[in-house]
Each structure stands twice: as C-alpha cells, then as structure tokens.
Records
---
Amino acid sequence: TYYGLVGRGHHAFSDAARWWLAQQKVKQLFKQAHCDGAQLLLEYGLVGTLAVVSYLAWAFWAHGAWGDPLTAAVVVGLVASLGQFPLHLPQTGIPWLVLVAFLVSRA
C-alpha cells in the first residue's frame, strides 16, 4: 500500500493502537506512540516526515542559528521526543513551536 509514502492520516496512531489491542498484538492501549518521530512517520508517511525535517533543517541552516541558545532548546525538544511525546502535550509542544517560530523570525 501507499501508507508508507503518505501516511495514514492525523490521529491514525490511536486507531491503529486500538486495532493492535483487539488483535492481542499489544497488552496495553496507548493513545500516543511515545516517540514523536515514529508517530509522525505512521500518520504522515515519508512525505510528511521529510517536509517537517526539511523545514527544521531550513530553519537552522538558512538562518545561521547554530550556537544560539534557542537552537539548543529546540534540539533538546527534538531529542526528548525520541523517547517521549512532548510535542503532543500543550505544556511542552506550544513553547517548542514558539521557540521555532521565534528562531526563524529573527533572521
């Protein structure tokens, strides 16, 4: 199927997790993947994931933001999202998006 390329759509992980539970492939139901990168790939596919990665790469390199403390804060958010889902929680996701927007707007 083409799901690997374009993904299954927004909020598809939760639906897939319910199916996995019904098929007894997992023992617990989780609404989030606990890895933002994996969830992004499942929901938006390779195209959506590459779009997000391209935007972040452009934000860092085009604006010469390496060495900036704000860049460090954004990178910490990305690293934290490898084992958690902080970008899905408003108390951490919104400040992270504000940091990215501020970083891009400063150039």
---
Amino acid sequence: LPAAAADDDTLRDLVEVASTETVVEQNYPNPFNPMTTIAFTMPAKGRVTLKVFDVRGRMVDELINGEREAGRHVVNFDDTLLSSGLYMYQITTKDQTVTRQMTLLK
C-alpha cells in the first residue's frame, strides 16, 4: 500500500503543475503536408499569441493574437505557400513562452 500512496502523491503533484501552466502539445501530424493541428491548454483566461517561424527566425504566420478563455484550444495550420522544411511554432502567454518544432514535407 505505501507504493500506491506514493504513486497517488506523484499524480496529484503532476495535476497541480499542469493546472497552473499552459500546456502545449506537439503538433499532429508531424511531419505534415499541408495541414497540421496545434493544441494547447490554458489554466486561466488571458492573452495568447501563436506564431510560426522559419529556421532563420522570420515570422511566417500569426495564428492567434488575443484573449482566450481557460481550457483546451485547437488550431489548424494550413499554409500551402511555405516550402518544405523545419518550422517552429511559439505560444506566448503572460507567464510563459513555449516553442516546438514541426516539419513540413511536400
């Protein structure tokens, strides 16, 4: 029983961390052609930006720039004008910035 209690404490700690931070999921599918989905969960209502950058750091798209309610949000990214390659998407809230990589294959 003590091992089960330790597992419960660990799970409770993980839930507390997740409920206080914005959680950014890896886009799916990845690699993609030409559409992918980016999902994130916000613990509270607030301002958020979601931007896509190329490998040189140039912003190629801004998918969100404004207030969003608390909860899970899903954004479709479909940019048929981009070339194949590595791109980064960056989600910024009041308290944090998270960047993930994605690959476009044509």
---
Amino acid sequence: IMMLVEPGYQPNDIIAMRITGGDEVVARYISQDDKTIKVAKPLALAMTQQGIGMTQYVMMADMTKEFVFNKQSVVVIQKANKGATDSYIKGTTGIQPASSVPPLQTK
C-alpha cells in the first residue's frame, strides 16, 4: 500500500493558520521543526469599515523579525488561497500582484 504524502511548505509560501484562540493568521512561511513553525510578517483577519481586512498580528512587535509559533497552538495550517495571498502581498509590500489586476481594455 502506497500512501500519498503531501509535500511540506517551501520558504516564502504564503500560509494561513487557525490559532487555538480563534485568530486566523496569514504569514510568509520560513521553516518548521517538531515543535514550532517560523513565519515572517504575520497578519490577522480583522473587521474594518470596508469589511474583512488584515492587521498586524502582534501590534507592538517588530515586523522585521521572525515570529515563532508553538505547533500546539496551531489548530490547522494550509497554503493560503489566491485572494488571501494577493491581499497579503499587497498589505506587506504595497505591491499589487499582476494576477489580481484586471486585464487591459483596448478600444
């Protein structure tokens, strides 16, 4: 019997995690070991006047440093969907991914 094993995450993948406290966090994956997951620039989903948005996960933290999550506090982790990935990239770099820009209209 062969078992299909899903490959792990690659550095710089944009991932989504649900944390035991209920927060949903989107971040850039760096690495993991048996007990921790290391990420960069984690953003949490938050309600804004315009609807759901992303905000800095730890408000007083230095976002240029790595964040280490204890795996025991992570309920689920998966690659972020396209919409979340595009919003994350725009929110952390100011760059709007080309894939989220509507095609040019020609007359």
